[in-house]
Design a protein that fits this description.
The complex is a heterodimer. By secondary structure, chain A is of the alpha+beta class. Chain A contains 25 helices and 23 strands. In chain A, the strands form three sheets. In chain A, strands 15, 16, 17, 18, 19, 20 and 21 form a seven-stranded mixed β-sheet that branches. A six-stranded mixed barrel of chain A has the order 4-5-10-7-9-8. Classes of the chains: A alpha+beta, B alpha+beta.
């Protein structure tokens, strides 16, 4: 028996349902079987029953049949879907490759947006948002005393001791002090970061040793064997991972046995190489002598405000009745989470950068949206043809969706590559002022966010053309090729997109302009000295070898003499603080032989040579000379601003000043006669005004030479040859002093590293924004020109000159650009304040930056509009008209 | 049913169906009747068991089906072999033959 037709069994899917299919088939069998039995002579009723008996469990068979067939249908559908997707992707790739310009621009635009955001947000997430790498790190707080001006000042030892005994808010409270000091006992003498701390530090951080043990309470008792703990990094790099037990380091003349290595990743205070126990018994008991920082761990369940309130009250009680000068007593505490303390100033910069990156992403999406719209419009004809050939709307939408997804995917890939590159750059260039920058890696959450945004943009604007087809006048698209009402609506959306893009770009351009201007201002600041050809040496002598301040001073005098006689050296001198480095003590001094007449001024030890080396001008009187030795009459030199502030309109020469609490002549309030006035020098940083300063000859008041000593050298010619000569001199005079040689210009550069970092990044974003805005306008105008070739052809044919037509097209675009600029300018004027704190010597609404940004952006926009317009009008009008 | 009826070996029904359909498309009842006649009711099998087997073979792509008119003008579901089904039949027949030969050798040898 031959059945007609051998095609696939489609009836099953489009005909009756599975259940009915099964029922009919089984019923057919039972009926024919019963008829067969009747023919064999069965009673009709009996025959039906017998047929069922022979068949078996009818309902069970039916169920089994249904299950098998349903499963088969589902499997076929899955296969069909994959086939369809494969087909869509193939077709999509072909379509995109036919419009490579569009695909490339879309991919790059998305890639830049995603890349910039991923990189910057990864930094923000790691630096600002991620918790510190310690157990329950949210409970760790940083605490200082509050001074009379409401600021934070270091903690006095007796206050710390009383806090530790009486405070109920903390599980542990530790005092520590940290500094760069000469360490002997490693492979060579070196300067390492040493932190003296109470044993509680380890409990505060719940730190554990990687090897050996950490220091405990017993190690802090007077007479205990000196011990220390080193960081994992220091142990590996400087101690060659030598076994503990017989490992000693000498710091400040004390030979400490290294009993442990802190776990890798424990880095507090940041950069510490060696932790040594504080000798608790020998600490001064003055409540007005502030030398310590403290960290603490809150008791579980204790909130920061509650702890602050307790410490505030406790501290006020402690200083009550103190005989010390109230100017130097605590007025309370400053308490914040350690995380906040560490992140500090970096927060504002990073948030600004994040905002800029966000604007770039927004622009990228806007740009993409307008590109997709333009493309959708060009394709509306193609889609209309599909629709008229009977393609289902869902099928068209799926095709568009696939193409959009392909674009988003490619953009994401580009974006991740860009993010990785940017991040590498950030890690390399980022200043030390941004903590934890070195650990930053690409953040998964933000990748997801950026990719999500990109996909959403691509999907929404990629699908708009399909939506248009659903309207009853779909056929109209076919007839008019995308003009008419729909085109008008599209033009409206475009104006919005291009205008928005222009405003965003303006904001970014102004922002980066402001930062650049601010940076220029910073570099042009008169710092009061000339860093050219100047090299600084940071020095630190062993107190074991040179127990007294006088011995220190004497060594430095001999060293400076040696340096001065080095060939090529034109001037050299000693100073206790290097300009711009920020490490600059100030003191409350007494004036004019009167202990009740006070002044506040920076305190520095110096000699005459240092003023010559730094080209600090002598304005009146004389510099120090040989008369000003230990046995001579005490003298001082003051800065111009000191003289103006405390002796306004009077001659400062011959007046007198004390060193306040800074030196050994504090107790007997020994006055020094002012013999000279020099120009102001900025010690605290480029952006920080110089403060009134008093210089004393280091040979007369040598006390601080033990803690802070620099030799400043000016060369006549080659700076390069100097370093080896200085090293040789140093090795000859004391091989245990590690040489730390830095060109002063390098220090100046380093002091503006954070600003340079911000400037470079914002500048990059602004350039990106300019390019995106230009590309966006270019794309839209190109499309409009392409759509209006016929109209332009008519205009040209009717005698319009190409230039007038060009002017018309460009003019229409520039109207939108002008609107965008207006919105952008308003945004800057209203919201510029957020940048205020980051700027130096330039207002957030700086008219120069604003004007420049407007001009540059308007120029770029005009160019971006003119190029496609010119291309459009160069064609022969007859050709363009026939093309339709 | 006769005394010689025996249980149908697993998988045998599939080959019987494929063999039956190798002569041309047929509906379920036709297959069932043909098998009954050819085997003279040797196998003790419930007639209903045929239908899940048919659908399984179809799901495996060995059969295809369509609703069509019978000679008497009734609508019935006709099954026919696909090229895959034909190939499967060849394989099945070959393996059955070697199975049967092996069995015959062993059983014949034991008797001798």
């Amino acid at each position: 028996m031959k059945t007609p037709g051998t095609g696939p069994a489609r009836g099953r899917i489009f005909g009756p349902g599975v259940a009915e299919d099964v029922d009919r088939e089984l019923r057919f069998h039972l009926e024919l079987r019963a008829r067969e039995l009747v023919e064999e002579g069965w009673e009709p009723g009996e025959a039906v029953r017998e047929a069922a008996r022979l068949f078996g469990d009818v309902e069970g068979v039916a169920r089994a049949c249904r299950t098998i067939t349903e499963r088969q249908i589902r499997a076929e559908r899955r296969m069909g879907m994959w086939d369809a997707i494969r087909q869509d992707v193939r077709y999509g790739l072909r379509t995109l490759s036919r419009a490579p310009e569009f695909a490339l621009i879309g991919m790059l635009t998305l890639g830049l947006g995603i890349g910039a955001n991923t990189a910057v947000f990864s930094v923000v997430d790691n630096v600002l948002l991620a918790p510190l790498p310690y157990e329950e790190s949210g409970d760790i707080v940083w605490m200082r005393e509050r001074n009379t001006r409401g600021g934070a000042m270091a903690v006095a030892w007796p206050n710390f001791v009383d806090w530790r005994e009486q405070a109920g808010s903390f599980e542990a409270l530790a005092a520590y002090g940290s500094g760069a000091t000469t360490v002997l006992g490693a492979e060579q003498p070196l300067v390492a970061r040493v932190t003296w701390t109470t044993a509680d530090l380890w409990s505060v951080f719940r730190a554990r040793p990687a090897m050996g043990r950490l220091t405990g309470t017993d190690d802090h008792l007077s007479g205990a064997e000196p011990v220390g703990v080193v960081s994992e990094r220091f142990w590996r790099n400087e101690l060659s991972s030598a076994p503990l037990g017989d490992l000693f380091l000498e710091v400040s003349g004390v030979r400490a046995r290294i009993v442990g290595v802190a776990a890798d990743g424990f880095d507090f205070p940041s950069g510490t190489d060696v932790w040594l126990p504080v000798d608790e018994a020998s600490q001064g008991m003055s409540r007005s002598s502030h030398n310590w920082d403290t960290v603490a761990r809150l008791r579980p369940g204790t909130a920061l405000p509650a702890a602050t309130a307790e410490m505030q009250a406790l501290t006020l009680r402690l200083v009550e009745g103190s005989d010390d000068d109230p100017e130097f007593l605590a007025t309370g505490v400053v308490l914040r989470t350690l995380h906040e303390q560490i992140v500090g100033d970096a927060r504002r910069t990073l948030l600004l950068l994040l905002g800029a990156a966000g604007l770039v992403l927004l622009m990228a999406c806007t740009n993409l949206a307008s590109t997709l719209l333009a493309r959708g419009a060009t394709r509306s004809r193609e889609l209309a043809v599909w629709a008229s050939l009977g393609a289902e709307r869902g099928r068209i939408a799926r095709q568009l969706l696939t193409e959009s997804a392909l674009l988003a995917l490619a953009g994401t890939a580009v974006g991740l590559v860009i993010a990785a590159l940017v991040l590498r750059g950030l890690r390399a260039l980022g200043p030390e002022s941004i903590p934890r920058l070195g650990e930053v890696a690409i953040d998964g959450t933000v990748v997801a966010f950026a990719v999500g945004t990109a996909f959403l943009t691509v999907l929404v604007f990629g699908l708009l053309p399909a939506r248009r087809l659903s309207r009853p006048d779909a056929g109209a698209a076919l007839r008019e090729g995308g003009r008419g009402v729909a085109a008008d609506r599209r033009a409206g959306i475009w104006r919005l997109l291009v205008g928005g893009e222009v405003s965003l770009a303006l904001v970014l351009l102004v922002g980066s302009g402001l930062v650049v201007r601010s940076f220029q201002n910073l570099l042009q600041e008169d710092v009061g000295f000339d860093a050219a050809d100047v090299t600084t040496l940071a020095l630190s002598l062993s107190p074991a070898k040179y127990p007294t301040a006088a011995e220190h001073a004497d060594w430095y005098r001999r060293f400076v003499d040696e340096v001065r006689s080095t060939p090529g050296v034109s001037a050299a001198g000693f100073i206790s603080s290097v300009p711009l480095q920020g490490d600059f003590p100030n003191a409350r001094l007494e004036l004019d032989g009167d202990l009740d007449k006070h002044a506040v001024g920076g305190y520095a030890l110096a000699d005459a040579g240092v003023f010559q080396a730094l080209d600090v001008p002598l304005l009146a009187g004389r510099l120090f000379d040989d008369r000003d030795g230990p046995d001579g009459a005490h003298v001082a030199v003051v800065s111009e601003s000191f003289a103006e502030e405390y002796w306004p309109g009077e001659n400062p020469i011959g007046r007198s000043v004390t060193g306040g609490g800074m030196d050994e002549f504090w107790q007997d309030r020994r006055f020094a006669e002012v013999v000279g006035v020099v120009g102001d020098v900025r010690f605290r940083g480029l952006a920080r005004e110089s403060e009134p300063t008093v210089y004393f000859p280091y040979m007369q008041r040598p006390s601080r030479t033990q803690y802070s000593a620099y030799v400043v050298v000016e060369t006549a010619g080659e700076v390069g040859a100097l370093a080896p000569a200085l090293r040789a001199t140093l090795a000859r005079m004391d091989p245990d002093v590690p040489p730390r040689i830095t060109p002063l210009e390098e220090s100046v550069r380093a002091s503006v590293a954070p600003q340079r970092f911000t400037m470079m990044l914002l500048g990059g974003f602004a350039a990106l924004a300019l390019a995106l805005a230009g590309a966006g306008i270019y794309g839209v105008v190109s499309y409009q020109v392409a759509q209006r070739t016929r109209e332009m052809g008519i205009r040209l044919a009717l005698g319009g000159s190409p230039s007038s037509v060009r002017r018309m097209v460009v003019g229409q675009s520039l109207t939108v650009v002008a609107l965008g600029l207006g919105v952008g300018v308003s945004a800057v004027l209203l919201g510029g304040g957020v940048m205020g704190a980051l700027l130096h010597g330039v207002a957030p609404t700086d008219p120069v930056s604003l004007t420049l940004a407007v001009v540059v952006l308007a120029g770029a926009a005009a160019l971006a509009a003119w190029i496609p317009a010119a291309r459009g009008t160069r064609v022969d009008p007859m050709v363009t008209m026939r093309a339709e | 049913m006769t005394d010689t009826s025996m249980e149908l070996l697993k998988g045998t029904l599939d080959i019987l169906i494929l063999k039956t359909l190798s002569r041309g498309a047929l509906h379920g009842y036709g297959i069932s009747r043909y098998l009954r006649e050819q085997t003279r009711e040797t196998f003790d099998v419930q007639e209903g068991a045929l239908y899940p087997a048919l659908r399984r073979l179809e799901a495996r792509g060995l059969l295809e089906s369509r609703w069509d008119s019978t000679d008497t003008g009734r609508q019935a579901k006709f099954y026919s072999l696909t090229p895959d089904g034909e190939a499967e039949l060849e394989r099945g027949v070959a393996s059955w033959k070697s199975y049967v030969t092996a069995m015959a050798q062993v059983l014949g040898g034991a008797r001798a």
